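Data's thin. Show one?
=====
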Amino acid sequence: MSLHLTTLALSHFRSYQRAELRVDARPVAIWGPNGAGKTNLIEAISLLSPGRGMRRASAQDMTRRPEALGWKVSALLQGQAGPREVMIRSEAGAARVTEIDGKPAPQVALGRVARMLWLIPSMDRLWIEAPEGRRRFLDRMTLSFFPDHAEASLTYEKAMRERNRLLKEQVRDAHWYAALERQMAQSGAAIQDARQASLDRLAQAQQGAETQFPAADLELISTEADIPGSQQDLREALAEGRFRDMAAGRTLVGPHRADLYGVFAAKGVPASDCSTGEQKALLISLILANARALAAEGEPPILLLDEVAAHLDAQRRAALYDEICALGAQAWMTGTGPELFTELGPRAQQLKVRDEQGQSFVEKTAD
């Protein structure tokens, strides 16, 4: 049984005062006018995975206004391991709290419950923006393959923040740095290994695939110099770079300096030099390849595709929908009207979203 959402409940989340949904494992087509609350709905679903969600918003920003009472997202997920209940909430002005099957859990534990990928309009500039966005994109894919990647990333970032504090304060005692660099080297090497293994799986998933979307050759590079690959090499590089890092006030070597380099494989053209349409097609192709690789392992991810069909012609839309259905993935897709999902026919269920005086309502329509 493929992973899918069966129930979703929102309380005081963004434009929704309250909403309750029951769906099956088929793709979900969500349509309604701009500003009605479609993206808010799938953003709530994105919070069921590790991280800050598809918009990277703070807990405070997600609360419905003007009440500002805090918010709650509850869901029932069905997969090979059986049903899992997940609840994310935030009291007014407080941080998020996560519960899995009724018990408090760290947020990184969500990676073992739901494999989730998303594509949103702001990612259209992925290949021409700063490396940080490409790292997040790569880490989202890596997390889908390796749930422990979230914990390794958290450990690395925490140790690096403390090391950066020492650097800014001009602390020179080597003993203060050694323990932090040991943690950074251990978790950093795990991050590097997981990222490279993910790229290898993506490459394999693209080989010989029957798809209307162009393949991308991907390579992990560094914004400055080569990133030390082994734990020992990274530890030595951090120790040797202390004085340089102290002058900069931050750590200048490690997986946080990585970048994702992409090439339109059939043309041999860097993704950053491709047309806007080609760049979008490459992103869709990578999301599909990621899902294909996971499906081969027995569990396709939940896909969140915001306005993905808006700039595709009917042939490309039909190809996208055919691939999603062939994967057996539950994809939540948004669009401004039902005509964008005509090619799906009865293979999908449809939700209509409307706005009434600043409040969003969602209802299931006839399939």
Remarks:
- Helices lie at 38-46, 131-145, 149-168, 174-206, 231-240, 242-248, 276-296, 314-327.
